[in-house]
Amino acid sequence: MSEYLVIVESPAKAKTIGRFLGKKYKVEASAGHLRDLPVSKMAIDIENDFAPQYMNIRGKGDLIKTLKKEAKDADKVFLATDPDREGEAISWHLSQILGIDEKAVCRVTFNEITKNAISEAFKAPRVIDEELVNAYQARRVLDRLVGYSLSPVLWKKVKKGLSAGRVQSVATRLICDREDEIEAFIPQEYWTISVNLRKDTGKAKVSKSECFLAKYYGEKGKKTKLEDKESADAIYNDVNNKDFIVSSIKKSEKKKSPAPPFITSTLQQEASRKLGFTASKTMSVVQGLYEGINVGKGGPTGLVTYIRTDSTRVSDEAAAAAKAHILSEYGDKFLPPYRRIYKNRNAAQDAHEAIRPSHIEYKPVDIKDKLTNDQYKLYKLIYERFIASQMADAVYDVCTVDFDVNGHTFRSIGNTVKFAGFTKLYEESLDEKAEKENSKLPTLEEGEKVIVDCILPEQHFTQPPARYTEATLVKALEENGIGRPSTYAPTISVILARGYVGKDKKTLYPTELGRIVNDLMKNSFPDIVNVEFTAQMEENLDKIEQGTRQWVDVIRDFYGDFAKEVDVATKELEHVKLTDPESDVPCDKCGRMMVIKTGKFGKFLACPGYPECKNTKPIIEEVGVECPACGSDLIYRKTKTGKKYVSCSNYPECKFSSWNIPTKDKCPKCGEFIEIAQGKRGRYLKCSNKECDYISFFKKKKS
To answer: Is 225 helix (H, G, I), strand (E, B) or coil?
Structure first.
């Protein structure tokens, strides 16, 4: 009996594929890469066209021997690693190790791990794609040149163990720049006037559902912004106790189309928003769904298509299966008049399908008991997003009613569902909160007078930009063309692990260490942390994959200027001694004057006699204000996540603490102390007495 050897990456994938192929095929796993650049040195021959010097990975020796023996005994070897750059590279490395001819028809790829997909793939093997391999090598060489050239600079000037990289440095910069925007933000005051209205039905009592909301729009139909209390009060006085008369009614129909099926980045974003998953958790869970789950008697099968993709394309078979499912479950009204085809952001990003269920017949609820809780949640998300993407538009009746009140216009908008369409199954989450509208307005006529329940002027402040979450950072990286589907999750993991970025609930913020590294990178290596420059490099890597550029030329063009930049920065930084500043605090163990060091969570005091004396202590930063509870000095402290707050120095005897900063000034209304608050509203002054409504904002500096 002839025997064929099939090599894949993971044991789980090997088990699933082995079940489909039968006894003639032996399926083994490489457990990822078998060869790579050694960690101990640069391993790039710059003088010889940047030739990478690969080595077998330590610890893989026995596996390599086994695969060599089995390859020698087999009639033919098939390399069935993932259908992307990384997968092509693993197959290429395997071919080098096993001595497979570069022209051998040995490469097998498939977009989903199902019996039909595997069977069809093995009917059409191909040679290893040289352009995909070159694109991988260019990325690997580029990242090694950047990382191994810049990291030593950080070791010398900041501290050992730090790293720099093309994508991680830009991601860190985005987070630092956003924090700078937030800190520089000066909130601006504005006011709204809301009115609770109801139709005059003659009834003495009305339910809450019969009331609806109108908001001040402007004067004589022109939109006007209210910038201060005086403006709001003037309008309030103009409209209070005046008749609210319907001046115009506009009715329209609005259609909303479904979101496309998931690609890697949108899956990570939506799983973060809807399920609270980190990017790395999403990729770990979906990997298991792709490689195979045992959901029936026949053994494991892949439940979703390939998970690292930029494409929203859907195969004809999958679209037909979705159509049949929609007809069966919802009826023909829920089918669009034509098949939905979604455009990709980049025409080149069409190597794979979108992420979708491999088996429409495996409804999430039917296989729930076969999945872990996380697998079920993510599979349900993918399944419903895909089916919804093939469904009809949702249709809304929109009614806009304007009220004329003594020359002022108030507007009420009602939004009711006329036809649910795809929203019967799924709606995409948003990062920003949408302004609420009335779900339904009563039947009104022009000239009709409505009853006013109350008029409410409200003070607001403009909001600073929000900190990034993992979801919005992935979105920013994608929109700016930074990195690729496989890099988002590991990039976020690296900057968190290095201590450049911290996490407060879902939001990401730069640590003090992250800011120090980012400033050094911006000053000494501006191109590496430049968003446009990095995006251009990603485009060049895509061109290598498309065969329109040679990988060595791309690296050569980059390295000339980069090497000069490194040389200049290294020479300049040689004269810059980043010595730890000395404090005025003596070490209570050896008497030396302690120095100020920077760690993951900010600055602290350390004895300069290290390693003989390992004494450290926190830096006590005084607020300069007495504790309102006991009169002791107030000091700044930090939470484990690095968030700053104010606390009494007499803790634990006095337990006063506050996120806000007390001042010496007293509230003009109640006499309690004024404090500086900083949060979603930016920085502003407020009374510390929760019962007092005194508030004052900082005046914007005139340019």
So the answer is: coil
Q: Do 259 and 385 form a contact (C-beta atoms < 8 A)?
A: yes
* Three-state secondary-structure class, residue 42: coil
Catalytic residue among 306, 330, 500, 559: 306
Cα distance between residue 515 and residue 605, in whole Å: 19
Answer yes or no: 330 catalytic: no
Task: Encode pLDDT of 557-592 as tens digits.
Answer: 999 889 988 888 888 776 666 667 788 889 988 889
Structure tokens at 659: 């996120």
CA distance 208 to 302: 51
Give the pLDDT confidence score for residue 702 in this predicted structure: 44
Residue 49, phi-psi category: left (phi > 0), alpha (psi -120 to 50), beta (remainder): left
- Give the E-state strand segments of 357-500 in sequence order: 394-405, 408-419, 449-461
Residue 434's pLDDT is: 63
Q: What is the DSSP string of 61-73?
A: HHHHHHHHHHHHH
Model pLDDT, residue 1: 41
Backbone dihedral angles phi then psi of residue 149, each to the nearest 5 degrees: -90, -35
Distance of CA 433 to the CA centre of its chain: 17
* Angstrom distance (rounded) from CA 657 to CA 637: 9
The Cα–Cα gap between 543 and 536 comes to 11
> Alpha-carbon distance 416 to 394, whole Å?
11
Tell me the C-alpha distance between 467 and 502, whole Å: 11
Q: Is the dihedral of CA 69, 74, 77, 80 positive or negative?
A: negative
β-strands 222-223, 449-461: how paired? unpaired
Q: Which residue is it, tokens 């993918």?
A: 382
The CB density around residue 436, as the number of other CB atoms within 10 Å, is 9
Does the N-terminal peptide bond of residue 258 adopt cis geometry, omega within 30 degrees of 0? Answer: no
Do the Cβ atoms of 364 and 209 come closer than 8 Å? no
Structural tokens at position 323: 């159509």
User: Do the Cβ atoms of 517 and 599 come closer than 8 Å?
Assistant: no
Q: What's the confidence (pLDDT) of residue 585?
A: 86
- Distance, first Cα to last Cα, the chain: 84
Strand order in the sheet with 25-29: 25-29, 4-8, 76-79
Task: Determine the Cα–Cα distance for residues 536 and 556; give it in Å rounded to an integer.
Answer: 15
CB 305 within 8 A of CB 322: no
Low-confidence ranges of the chain (pLDDT < 50): 1, 348, 701-703
pLDDT computed for residue 498 by the predictor: 86
How many Cα atoms sit within 13 Å of 239 on the Cβ side? Answer: 30
Give the CA distances from residue 590 to residues 204, 605, 619, in Å, rounded to whole numbers and listed in that order. 83, 14, 18
Spell out the alpha helix ranges (H) of 575-676.
Answer: none
Quote helix, strand, coil % in the chain, to nearest 5. 35, 25, 40
- DSSP code for 293: E
Burial 573-593 (b: 16+ CB within 10 A, else e): beeeeeeeeebeeebeeeeee
645 in helix, strand or coil?
A: strand
pLDDT at position 164: 86
CA distance 355 to 385: 10
Closest of 344, 348, 341, 351 to residue 316, by C-alpha? 341
User: Which residues in 489-503 are b (16+ Cβ under 10 Å) and which e?
Assistant: bbbbebbbebbbbbb
pTM for the whole thing? Answer: 0.81
Handedness of CA 541, 546, 549, 550 (dihedral sign): positive
